[in-house]
Amino acid sequence: MNVYDSQRMADVLAPLGYGVTDSAETADMIILNTCHIREKASEKLYSELGRYKISQDQRRAQGSDILIAVAGCVAQAEGAEIMRRAPHVDIVLGPQTYHRLPEMVAQAMRARDVKSNGVNSHGQGVLDIEFPTDPKFDFLPDVRVTGPSAFLSVQEGCDKFCTFCVVPYTRGAEYSRNVVDVVTEARHMAEQGVREITLLGQNVNAYRGQRGARSGGSAGLGELIGELANIDGLDLIRYTTSHPADMDAKLIQAHRDVSELAPFLHLPVQSGSNNMLHRMNRRHTRDHYLRIIEELVSARPGLQLSSDFIVGFPGESDADFEATMALVRDVGFIQAFSFMYSPRPGTPGALLEDRVPHDIQSERLTELQKLLSDNQQTFNQSCVGEVMPVLLDRHGRKPGQLAGKSPYMQAVHVMAPATLLGEIVELRISEALPNSLSAVLAAPDAAGRSMQENGRLAV
Ligand code: SAH
Ligand code: SF4
Questions:
Q1: Which ligand is nearest to the CA of 37?
Q2: Are 232 and 190 in contact (CB under 8 A)?
Q3: Average pLDDT in the 60-70 region?
Q4: pLDDT tens digits, residue range 358-384?
Q5: Mean pLDDT, the chain, as a whole number?
Q6: Percent of the chain whose predicted confidence (pLDDT) is above 90
């Protein structure tokens, strides 16, 4: 979501003459787009700001300047504190207000002029962390397509209030864009060569968009995916992140009926223990989660899953943790993200007293990650010899190499002519490396062993 938001900020600033650069030191403006989900992520902010203050001072000494902005969820949660601790920051903006960036830049420039004229040597920065009543999407310019693969935000915010999570506080209430706007944007992307779209939302399957701008009833994510699949040129659709409690029958049906939908789903479960799920306010049990997976796999045989896990949430016993390990063994996730619980200010979890000691959290995380990694390697090995379609969307590290993602989100690289960049190409997997797959171009008649015939394929 932050990658998408950063791209949108660049789109909003392009008419003012700003472009994206790789070098913070020579930039005219630095926007730090922050994440507040775990403590480590937010801690980074102040050290980065310290570094950029040095660049800013140097540039000022040379008679120019760098405008510094802090965006994203740390800005939303700690805006005033950032202004206080780092007065060299010119702009603080939340994730719901970046469509107003041009206005903020103009104000910051004016404040800077005032400062440099000595009228107000403590010129105030610009702070905009409202949750506006007008959704920002109505004010954003067209997305600028940068390759064959694109993100498309369809839903924002969260009303679930899991007890560990800051998202409902930093991103605001659930909001869905209407179907017409989403389909128009996707069509526009496809016309510019986009082949793969990833639909985004904090709870993307809580999507319920009005069909028209004003009328026509509403549609859920399954129906929206059905509409998007009709767009010419759009060959692959993914969505993330979904919540188990919002996996409805129509969405599961879409996995059966829409061949463009990837045979891979990221479905966070957090824990395999009902006791923990209840304390986390996850609104689903272990059995409910397993039932959804059964339904998904029967709708789309061969569908593979990844998930998110939190270990060491307050009160987690050895038995609770063992229930998570057992769930991982049962489901065999092919990828996963796993985290040690990080208490977040303002969330109910942070007030719970039966904290799990750090060394136990750490042991559990190591054990879980070993199992998850074994599962991933087993799946990667099972892919060797298979033929699968891969959208080659970038150059690989070695000369003459192209790279892309498999239908299951594995990184794949292949020696291939640059003319295949942007194409979906049948590749035969030749080797499973620790973090990626090597492949060769499959002969056109090699489909004999394709995953489609093994019942595994999507595209
Ligand atoms: N909406 C998604 C998750 C978004 S946050 C869902 O409901 O599953 C992404 C992941 O960060 C979560 O799935 C969770 O595993 C992790 N996370 C969130 N808050 C955390 C915290 N306080 N400590 C550790 N991990 C956390
Ligand atoms: Fe956070 Fe996801 Fe729970 Fe919402 S559903 S509170 S985003 S973990």
A1: 1
A2: yes
A3: 91
A4: 999 999 999 999 999 999 999 999 999
A5: 91
A6: 79
Q: What is the distance between the alpha carbons of residues 88 and 59, in angstroms, rounded to a whole number?
A: 13
CA 393 to ligand 1 center in whole angstroms: 29
How is residue 82 written in tokens? 């950032």
Query: How close is the Cα of 164 to the center of ligand 2, in Å?
Result: 8
In DSSP terms, 91 is beta-bridged to 69, 126
Ligand nearest to the CA of 204: 1
Q: Is 389 touching ligand 2 by the criterion CB < 6 Å?
A: no
Separation of CA 287 and ligand 1 centre (Å): 20
Enclosing H/E stretch for 274: helix 274-279
pTM of the model: 0.91
> Which of the 8 DSSP states describes residue 124?
P
> Which residues, in sequence order, are CB contacts of 358 under 8 Å at separation 6+?
none
Residue listed under structure tokens 């930093």: 170
Domain 383-441: CATH superfamily is: Nucleic acid-binding proteins (2.40.50.140)
Taking CA atoms only, the protein residue closest to ligand 2 atom 3 is 162
Give the ligand at the shortest distance from the Cα of 167: 2
Dist CA 383 CA 328 (whole Å): 20
Q: Which amino acid is at 50?
A: G
Contacts of 149 (CB under 8 A, 6+ apart): 194, 195, 196, 197, 198, 391, 393, 405
Pick the CATH number of 263-381 from 3.30.750.200, 1.20.120.790, 2.30.180.10, 3.10.580.10: 3.30.750.200
Count the Cβ atoms, other than its own, within 10 Å of residue 285.
14
User: Which of 2, 76, 169, 203 for mutating ligand 2's site (highest number of atoms within 8 Å of CB)?
Assistant: 203
pLDDT tens digits along 386-435: 999 999 999 999 999 999 999 999 999 999 999 999 999 999 999 999 88
Q: Which of 55-59, 311-315, 451-455 has the lowest mean pLDDT?
A: 451-455
Could you please state the CATH topology (level 3) that the domain comprising 142-259 is classified under: Transcription Regulator spoIIAA (3.30.750)
Cis peptide before 241 (omega within 30 of 0): yes
Query: Residues 6 or more apart from 419 whose CB is under 8 A from it?
Result: none
